[in-house]
Amino acid sequence: MPGFDDKDFGAEAAPAHLKAETGTLAQSPSNGEDGVGAYGRGQSSTFGAVEVPASRSSIADASPYMHQLSLSPSMKDRRGSRNSFGAALPIPRSKRQSRLSSVTHADGRPQRPGMPPIQPTREILAGQVQDMSKQKVSAAKDMAFVFDIDGVLVHGDRLIPEGQRTLEILNGDNELGIKIPHIFLTNGSGKPEEARVAQLSKILHQPISTEQFIQSHTPMSALAEYYERVLVVGGEGYRCREVAEKYGFKDIVVPNDIVAWDPTIAPYRVFTDEERATSNPRDFSKINIDAIMVFSDSRDYATDMQIIMDLLQSENGRLHTRAKDPISQRIPIYFSQGDLLCPTEHPYPRMSQGTFRIGLEAMYKALTGEDLERVVYGKPELATYKYADEVIASWMETIHNEEKLPKNIYMVGDNPASDIIGGNMYGWNTCLVRTGVFQGGDNDENNPANFGVFTNVLEAVKTAIQKELGKEFRFEWSDEKVNPLLQSEASSAAIE
Ligand code: G3P
Ligand code: MG
């Protein structure tokens, strides 16, 4: 899985012993700006991960949503929390290895004396066409698309037809037969990357690689180096446990393990025999949970909120205890994304992780009088966009054998508060489509897309390509036009 190298930031990895001594995230000052978007480029390096300064406040969002009378200001002096969460979001370091290009460039036709010539393959023909259009080729390699998924390419399991055609064009069905770089950046979550990519490839009828794919929790694999035992919340069944295992988390607890140990912790939960049989109960009054990772949408708000609240109020993550100091003994909590709503088959968008989090923040404030500190990954967080940059560069190496970041990056999204604001802040071109969350007028009032608003993804992509490669660019590959054999066959047929 791609990530950042030390050399990318001029930083050295901190020695491993620091991790054992503190087990916490270090405050991470910015290294300065390089003028890329309003976000800048600050980051620092700790352990085996890279820490990117948080672009969102680490303090709960709940206050504006609460009745003033329910806010009881704390009399205590605000004390530094045990972890400086919110100061920095770790993302994975590069584990990249050199890969050979998947594009075949042939210098000449194979020689097979005495045998009929081999029909030129599309790759060979494309190579020849590309040799004749060097300027367009370099423009095609100097642009890249970053696609949001839900509301742009699909609605849940339902294809948005223009999504398939878009990917066909970018995968080579264009006048150059060239692969135009693109990656997928979704706030979606809840299953391993391999499984989601397989599902999407099937819906879109196009090949998609995990190397060009980022889910909301993908960069959170970096957190595996910081915490020994974690509670993983959300998703169907035990799929998020599977995700955490793949990310390298060593000791993973899910809410079912806790309910199986002490059913009284969740008084409204009806626990099935199957759930009991598949859970892994331990005596959680004797061990500490080091951090909470909300990877995906909760399937049982009552149980998950109860367990999370118990842990946040416990002494260093030990259940059946209450912290003497609610701040310094509070364990960190991370959310994989902050979207309030998600478009589904239902006529109105459904609540997502953001609303779940705000509910928790309000409960925490109401019960303790303190604001909850937390970290939120996913779009529009800076760390997620930095990680995307790295994935684009790595994907460029895979498809074109050139590890570089294209100059002109286009984010295509349906959610102004997530895809568009993040892309704008990061200095990308942003395209807002009308097939998802955005249902407004000419452009979004608060977070307008800087490249424009489009009916669908195909319209956005065609407009962007024409801007970079010329108005006349054809969105179709034609064997006949470039294959001399087929051309002569066609002309003799015409003569006849
Ligand atoms: O909001 C949750 C998620 O389904 C959004 O996915 O692809 O639109 O970022 P996406
Ligand atoms: Mg979307």
From TrEMBL:
Q: Which terms in the GO cellular component ontology are assigned?
A: mitochondrion
Give the GO biological process terms: glycerophospholipid biosynthetic process
Q: Where is the composition biased (Basic and acidic residues)?
A: 1-10
Q: Which InterPro entries match?
A: CDP-alcohol_PTase-I, HAD-like_sf, HAD-SF_hydro_IIA, HAD-SF_hydro_IIA_CECR5, HAD_sf
Give me the ranges of the annotated region Disordered.
Answer: 1-43, 71-119
Gene3D superfamilies listed in its UniProt record: HAD superfamily/HAD-like
Q: Name one Pfam family in it.
A: Hydrolase_like
In Swiss-Prot or TrEMBL terms, this protein is called: Uncharacterized protein
